[in-house]
Every structure is written in C-alpha cells, then in structure tokens.
Amino acid sequence: MQEIIEKFIAGYVRSYSLKKGTCTTWLSPLVAYADAADLLFPKLKQIVSPSHAVPTDFLSDAETVIAYFLPFNHLVAESNIPGRESSRAWAVAYVETNTLISDLNAALARKLERHGYKAALIPPTHNFDKVKLISDWSHRHVAYIAGLGKFGLNNMLITARGCCGRVGTIVTNVKIKPTPRAEGEYCLYKLDGSCGKCVDKCVNNALHKKLFDRQKCYAMCLENASRFGDVGLADVCGKCLVGVPCSFVNPVGFSN
Ligand code: B12
Ligand code: SF4
Ligand code: SF4
Fold first, then answer.
1. How many helices (H) and strands (E) does the chain have?
2. What's the pTM value of the predicted model, to 2 decimals?
3. Which domain holds residue 109?
C-alpha cells in the first residue's frame, strides 16, 4: 500500500493546479509514516497540550499516521521576502494549499476505502484554540514523530525540502512500516549556534532566540488577513521562513 499511497499523493498534487486553476504550484511532496502506537503520541499531551489527541481518538483501529509536506514553488516564497506585509502570492498559496490538503485527504480516504481500509480526516489549520493559539492536533509534531523533519528556531518543521510549504496528516488503519527519525538537528542555530537569520527577519518582534510570543505573531497574521480578505481567510506572515538557509533545503545537509 505504501507505493500506492505515495504515487497517489504525488499524482494528485502534480495535477491539482491545472485541474483547479490555482495560482499556486507545488514541488513534489514528501511523505512519511508514524506508527499510531508510537509512544511519542501520548507524550504530546505534555509537550503540546493536555487535550492533544492520539491517533485512536480519530480511528479506534488506527495503525499508521501518514504525514506529508507540500513545498511551495520557490517563486511563492521569494515573493514574500521584501517588506513588512505578506505578498499576495504567499496569502493565496496559504488559502489554496489548505484547500488542496482538505481535497487530497478526502480523495486519499476514498482511495484507501476502495482498497478495504479506513481513514480519518483532519483539517489543515484553524483547528486551534483562538485564545491559547494551540491545536489539539499539531500537524508538525505529528510529522516530526513520522520522521518528516525537525524543528527550527523559527518553530517550523524543517524537512529535506526546507520549511516553505504546508503539512498535512491523515490517520488510517493500513499498517505501514514507520519512517525512521533521523539523528541530529536540521536547524543551524540548534546545531551549533551559527544562524539565527529567522529571528532577524521577524517583522513584529515575536520571534526571539529564547522566546516566541505567539500573540504578537498572530496579531501580524491578522493584520495581513485584513489586507487579503478577498482571497479567503489568509492569516499569514511567514517572513521568518523566507530568504533563510532552511527555506528550501535541510541546511545541515543530511536527511533520511
Ligand atoms: C496555532 C497555529 C499558529 C499560531 C501559533 C504558532 C505556534 N508556533 O504555535 C499562529 C497563528 C501565531 C501561527 C503562525 C504561523 N503559522 Co501556524 N499553525 C498553528 C496550528 C493551527 C497549531 C500549532 C500548535 O498547536 N502549536 C502548539 C505549540 C505548543 O507548538 P509550538 O509552540 O509550535 O511547539 C514547539 C515545541 O514543542 C518545540 N519543540 C522544540 N524542540 C522540540 C523537540 C521535540 C522532540 C518536540 C516533539 C517538540 C519540540 O517545537 C515547537 C516549535 O518550536 C498549526 C496547524 C496544526 N493544527 O498543526 C499551524 C502551523 C504550525 N502553522 C504554520 C505556518 C506556516 C505558520 C506561519 C508561517 C503563518 C503563515 N502561513 O504565513 C506562522 C509562523 C509562526 C511561527 N514562527 O511559529 C504551518 C507550519 C508548516 C511548517 N513547515 O512547519 C502549520 C503546521 C500549518 C500547516 N498545516 O502546515 N500558527
Ligand atoms: S533561519 Fe537559521 S536559525 Fe532560523 S530556523 Fe532556519 S536554520 Fe534555524
Ligand atoms: S510569522 Fe511573522 S510575526 Fe510570526 S514569527 Fe514569523 S516573522 Fe514574526
């Protein structure tokens, strides 16, 4: 089933832009798998929040969590480098990729059902507590468990294709061999203190080396949302992801 799933995700993402007439295009996705019984899942109740879900909350016979990363076309990220405000292309990519994740998960669930399996759908974002700004299902923590990447100082999941893209997850009862988690860090600051460019890039004094003020960050995202109301709910910023060493690659240079 692993090969069927990977071919399906790659093909879906490749044809999506043309089929739906999106402005955004995506590079080939990365896919990884976590064992639903991985002991890190219950630990997320301590790391993220006491109400964080585990895979069996979505599917009682869950075996695997499929995590994928959809990297933006580099032009989308580069358009967001200048200025304090987000670029329109970045805002559009956010909205279009959220829709892509919902569509892809629904299509993948149908595909799995045709093979006699089940899958539970989870929305790409906006599934978070608007006061605490914490989700009950953190896609990037789940993707971390699946070996898709490691956390950067900018809080992002840095994958083998960098961090400029979005993460999706889906829970299923297909049993697939888990992807091994690589050793070491993917962030240059975490590796040896030699970076910190994301902190310099922050446009609302939210990101620091020892502190992240999620309320200041959200305020900036809402400022952009009010400018881009015509494209949908685009509470975006992303200045700390673009024009930095981890935008498109794992800058430490190894990955599984
Ligand atoms: C709430 C939320 C926000 C809030 C709060 C941000 C935050 N950092 O939590 C606000 C609105 C401010 C926000 C802003 C942004 N967000 Co947001 N957001 C979410 C959401 C819905 C939940 C995140 C959450 O629950 N965090 C929980 C808290 C506790 O996690 P945390 O503080 O980040 O946890 C840290 C520690 O646990 C730590 N950690 C450090 N070392 C280790 C080691 C181990 C072993 C572990 C397990 C953890 C760990 O890692 C984390 C990061 O530092 C997710 C979607 C989802 N459901 O997952 C998207 C999501 C995280 N956002 C995303 C993005 C891209 C953004 C923005 C760039 C906006 C944009 N699109 O332009 C900014 C970036 C802000 C930043 N630098 O962090 C992407 C990230 C993609 C990626 N490559 O990782 C996500 C995953 C959406 C998606 N489907 O792709 N976001
Ligand atoms: S910009 Fe540098 S310090 Fe920030 S997350 Fe990327 S590699 Fe780490
Ligand atoms: S998304 Fe914007 S406001 Fe939030 S930490 Fe990054 S640069 Fe700062």
1. 9, 8
2. 0.95
3. 2-231
